[in-house]
Design a protein that fits this description.
Number of domains: 2
Number of helices: 3
CATH architecture of the largest domain: Roll
Oligomer: single chain
Strand order of the largest sheet: 1-4-3-2
Low-confidence stretches: none
Radius of gyration: 16 Å
CATH class of the largest domain: Alpha Beta
CATH topology of the largest domain: 2,3-Dihydroxybiphenyl 1,2-Dioxygenase, domain 1
Distance between the termini: 35 Å
């Protein structure tokens, strides 16, 4: 019998520089922080939140997106593992607003592409992790 999954619980990306990555994800997505180690954390709290590895976990709807700062190599989607992460938008209008936002931040992208069933916008984070926005056609 197949496992009855209904959604992703979370995705965690391994990054090389947590401050650089946090700045990028904060600026691009502005997601609320679900979990992070407070700077004044006591030993019990540090132990309880050790699963963060010094990173951060953002709330993304009913899912979570984490950044884990333990990598020392750059990402490439042609290696085994992650190809890209795609974030859902509701409309082409939101896609166009995302283009303007990325342009304001100086984040390089490939422009909106019509893929038949919807639109995608591809760009990369500071570790070269391939990110995508997807909006369905009405």
């Amino acid at each position: 019998m197949p496992i009855p999954t209904r959604a992703y619980a979370h995705v965690r990306l391994t990054v090389t520089d947590i401050e650089r990555s946090r700045t990028f994800y904060d600026d691009v997505f502005g997601l609320p922080v679900a979990f992070e180690l407070p700077p004044d954390a006591d030993e019990a709290t540090k132990k309880q939140l050790s699963f963060l590895y010094g990173g951060v976990i953002y709330a993304l709807g009913s899912s979570l997106l984490g950044l884990r700062p333990v990598s020392d190599t750059a990402f490439h989607e042609d290696t085994t593992g992650l190809d890209h992460v795609s974030f859902a938008l509701d409309s082409r209008d939101q896609m166009d607003e995302a283009v303007a936002h990325l342009d304001t931040l100086g984040v390089a992208h490939q422009g909106v592409k019509d893929i038949g069933v919807g639109y995608i916008l591809e760009f990369r984070d500071p570790d070269n992790i391939a990110l995508e926005l997807f909006a369905p056609k009405p």
